Amino acid sequence: MFLLLALIVLAPAGSVAAKPAPPLSPAATSAAIGREAIAMLASRATDSDPEVRTLVAAAWGRLANRAALPILRKSALDEKADVRIAAAVSLIKLGDQEGLPRLIAETKGSDSSASSPAEELRRMASDAARSRAVLRLGEVRSDATVEALKSCLSDASGEVRDSAAVALARLGLGGARQFAEAMNDSDEAVRTSAARSLGLIGHDGLEALKKAFSSDTSANVRAEAALAMGSFSDPASMGLLVAGLADKSGRVRLASARALALRDEPGSTLALKKMLDQSPAPEITLVICAALARRKEKIDLALLELTLGLRDPELKLLAVAALTSSDHAEAQSLLLKIMRTDTDGRVRATAAVGLVERLRGMSSGSKS
After folding, report:
1. pLDDT digits 0-9 by tens, 284-322
2. What predicted TM-score, i.e. pTM, was given to this entire model?
3. Which residues are CB-neighbours of 242 under 8 A, at least 6 positions away?
4. Residue 114: which residues within 8 A CB-CB, separation 6 or more?
5. Which of 65, 207, 215, 367 has the greatest number of C-beta atoms within 10 Å?
6. CB-based burial of residue 288 (10 Å sphere; 0-12 exposed, 13-18 middle, 19+ buried)?
């Protein structure tokens, strides 16, 4: 017995240890990372955080992953409306017939009136969720969609009615006149909401937005007008947004950067690069980095890595967006690390989606 132990201890390592496995090929490594990312998303479909569940439900449609249909059908029964809405939209994107009826169902309200302050708060939250469902319904062109949206025009909730008008206008079945006129309202909240609606419609009301951006006394209205102009393509509005990068209001500067990030004119890229050279606030910097990465411009990966070490999950989400679009080889390693180790479920799940999207892009690029 002791002789046997001595032989094991004294024997050369190679005589008892298994030979190391050969390194995986790049293709096999990518496949393994992809499987890990998908498994991570699947495990988060029942996360305790409804924001994570919503993100994951939306991801399956974004990734065109039909293998997730059973997961989505369960998510469509979630206790939280936003999870159900995201699941329904993904089901529609994946061609599942359950998707559209479920999304239409999320636009329906209760006929009962609130009898207490608590019930009134719940009704307001429900109306807000129904409004979001109506806007998503406006992305689906079908007879059933149009019928449901027209029905929502007579809803008891003004928020739902406005969303239905926006959704129909986006489908080319209505105009934006009511929202353009509302830009002259004396109530700042009304003007802010109208600007947001015009941005969602994206093809009417530009003059009203430009006027508000240039002269409104409210930074909130000017910021919303700036963001809305990101949906348009117009030289004059481009000039306003570039000027907005130097606005005295940080909110307007951020909105202008976000809007320019949505514009694909060459001038927007140049303006964003110039702004980046001025070392703006962290959030603006990351918005610009993500936009430049999508345009295959060089970005500072060290800055993104530094951001991932911070405690602010919102900034980390922006860094993940930039890494997802970056063609730098190190970006994948950073995404893999954050997917495995970050303490925020939303950040980890978003990194997983980013990894799958990068790998899918690399795969399609190698075939072309």
Report:
1. 999 999 999 999 999 999 999 999 999 999 999 999 999
2. 0.88
3. 256, 260, 267, 271
4. 120, 122, 123
5. 65
6. buried
Q: Judge whether 246 and 220 are in contact, CB under 8 Å.
A: no
Q: Determine the pLDDT at residue 3.
A: 33
Q: What is the pLDDT of residues 328-358, one digit of tens each?
A: 989 999 999 999 999 999 999 999 999 999 9
C-beta separation of 160 from 107 below 8 A: yes
Burial class (CB in 10 A: 0-12, 13-18, 19+), 57: buried
Give the integer Cα–Cα distance in Å for 42 and 337.
Answer: 18
| Rounded-to-integer distance, Cα 145 and Cα 101, Å | 9
- Report how far apart the first and last C-alpha atoms of the chain are (Å, whole number): 63
Dig out the tokens for 305 from the structure: 């890595």
| Tokens of residue 180, six digits | 């353009």
CB-CB neighbours of 150 under 10 Å: 13
Rounded Cα distance, 223 and 253, in Å: 8
* Rounded (10°) CA dihedral 158, 162, 168, 170: -160
Q: Which two tokens stand for residue 121?
A: 């708060």
CA angle 266-268-269, nearest 5°? 70
Question: Do residues 97 and 82 lie in contact, with contact meaning Cβ atoms separated by under 8 Å?
Answer: no
Q: No. of H helices and E strands in the chain?
A: 22, 0
Q: Is 205 left (phi over 0), alpha (psi -120 to 50) or beta?
A: left
**Per-position DSSP letters for 158-177, written without gaps between them:** HHHHHHHHHHHHHTTSS-SH
Amino acid at 59: A
